[in-house]
């Protein structure tokens, strides 16, 4: 198809939406597993343009949002130390811990630095040999290769003052948990194209077979998302469950071998806690024994920190697609971007942030 060569063409969008409307004969619920896609959907009103009965459910597609509270508290404990320069991407700065956030630590005199590449943190470690430099390495499979390269470079440069606080999570185990839940309503998935540029599409094949659920890999432009929805709808209406790649300009079946190689060298699969969801077996990465000397949790002895989520915050239900953000009683009241209860309200990919920014005070879709 040539649809996706014309990202800003409203006529193409109209044709796709008309085809979806002609195809739909019954209600369907589709989950996007990418916060970038969620923001595209809400910003452009895609969910409001779909035929009545087609619901888009927002899944755990924001790595900042699923980072558990205890990991945030560990980051805060490390960042508050006078001998530490704590480096992070900007979207972690306002994520609340139990009592404070990184912005608050900075206001108290902590050396918190926003970087635009993980390797910037390695350079900072070179330039500050009298300080311990820690990079907050979070994300899905997408950011893992660059984060892995930080410890590879630190070893090559013999930097004893650099470490990585790791909170990497993997998408396929989360999809399985959603499908195993008796409360789920998901009948098809839009998979995140950026994850698949690294890992390829093969890991989704067994999920399609085991759960008989369509999965379409797609991108982040409005037409990418609409095309992905179109393909899922066709499969559902035809009684098919297949894995399709609607993002071939960036994704190939085998993924990026070089990226996978550095990931496999630096990380090992582990059980990982997801904020508001709990521990999902084999759903994350941690530093392998070969690179354990660069593990910030071990270096600063913060592994024993335990935290408890706010009883008011229903981010776990939002991340599992059980409710829309504005169905949380605290949304826009006790929880705002200025005073957030949970990460989804302040992350650039958070569903709550999208609903708040684009004034979605009423739920759209089937309830």
Shape type: globular
Strand content: 15-25%
Helix content: 25-40%
Arithmetic mean of pLDDT: 93
Give the second-level CATH assignment, the architecture of one domain.
3-Layer(aba) Sandwich
> Could you give the order of the helices and strands?
HEHHEHHEHEHEHEHEHHEHEHEEHHH
Structural class category: alpha/beta
Largest sheet: 6 strands, mixed
CATH top level class name of one domain: Alpha Beta
CATH domain topology of one domain: Rossmann fold
- First-residue to last-residue Cα separation: 34 Å
CATH superfamily of one domain: HypD, alpha/beta domain 2
**Low-pLDDT residue spans:** 1-5
Query: Helical region count?
Result: 16
- The largest sheet has its strands arranged as 4-3-5-6-11-10
Number of strands: 11
User: What Rg is obtained from the alpha carbons, in whole angstroms?
Assistant: 21 Å
Main features:
single chain; Rossmann fold; five-stranded parallel sheet; disordered N terminus
Question: Could you give a short description of this structure?
Answer:
The protein has helices spanning 10-23, 35-44, 46-49, 63-66, 69-79, 102-107, 118-127, 144-156, 171-180, 193-199, 205-211, 222-237, 257-266, 296-299, 315-319, 351-357; strands at 28-32, 54-58, 84-88, 111-114, 132-139, 162-169, 188-192, 215-218, 243-245, 267-274, 278-287. It is globular, with a radius of gyration of 21 Å.
């Amino acid at each position: 198809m040539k649809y996706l060569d014309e990202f800003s063409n409203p006529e193409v969008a109209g044709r796709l939406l008309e085809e979806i409307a002609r195809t739909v004969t019954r209600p369907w619920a589709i989950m996007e597993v990418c916060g970038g896609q969620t923001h595209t959907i809400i910003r452009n009103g895609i969910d409001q343009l779909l035929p009545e009965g087609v619901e888009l459910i927002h899944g755990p597609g924001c790595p900042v949002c699923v980072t558990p509270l205890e990991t945030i508290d560990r980051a805060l404990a490390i960042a508050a130390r006078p001998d530490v320069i704590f480096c992070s991407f900007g979207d972690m700065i306002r994520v609340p811990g139990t009592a404070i956030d990184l912005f608050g630590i900075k206001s108290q005199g902590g050396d918190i630095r926003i970087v635009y590449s993980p390797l910037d943190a390695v350079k900072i470690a070179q330039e500050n040999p009298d300080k311990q430099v820690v990079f907050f390495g979070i994300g899905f499979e997408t950011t893992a290769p660059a984060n892995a390269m930080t410890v590879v470079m630190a070893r090559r440069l013999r930097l004893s003052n650099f470490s990585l606080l790791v909170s990497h999570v993997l998408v396929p185990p989360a999809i399985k948990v959603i499908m195993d839940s008796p409360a789920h309503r998901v009948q098809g998935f839009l998979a995140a194209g950026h994850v698949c540029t690294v890992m390829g599409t093969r890991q989704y094949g067994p999920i399609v077979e085991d759960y008989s659920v369509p999965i379409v890999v797609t991108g982040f432009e409005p037409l990418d998302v609409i095309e992905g929805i179109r393909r899922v709808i066709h499969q559902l209406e035809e009684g098919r469950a297949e894995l399709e790649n609607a993002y071939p300009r960036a994704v190939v079946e085998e993924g990026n071998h070089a990226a996978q190689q550095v990931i496999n060298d630096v990380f090992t699969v582990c059980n990982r806690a997801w904020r508001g969801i709990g521990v999902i077996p084999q759903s994350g990465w941690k530093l392998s024994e070969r690179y354990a000397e660069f593990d910030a949790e071990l270096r600063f002895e913060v592994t024993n920190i335990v935290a408890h989520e706010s009883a008011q915050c229903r981010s776990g239900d939002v991340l599992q697609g059980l409710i829309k953000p504005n169905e949380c009683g605290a949304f826009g009241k006790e929880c705002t971007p200025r005073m957030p209860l949970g990460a989804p309200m302040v992350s650039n990919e958070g569903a709550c942030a999208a609903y708040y920014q684009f004034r979605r005070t009423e739920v759209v879709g089937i309830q």
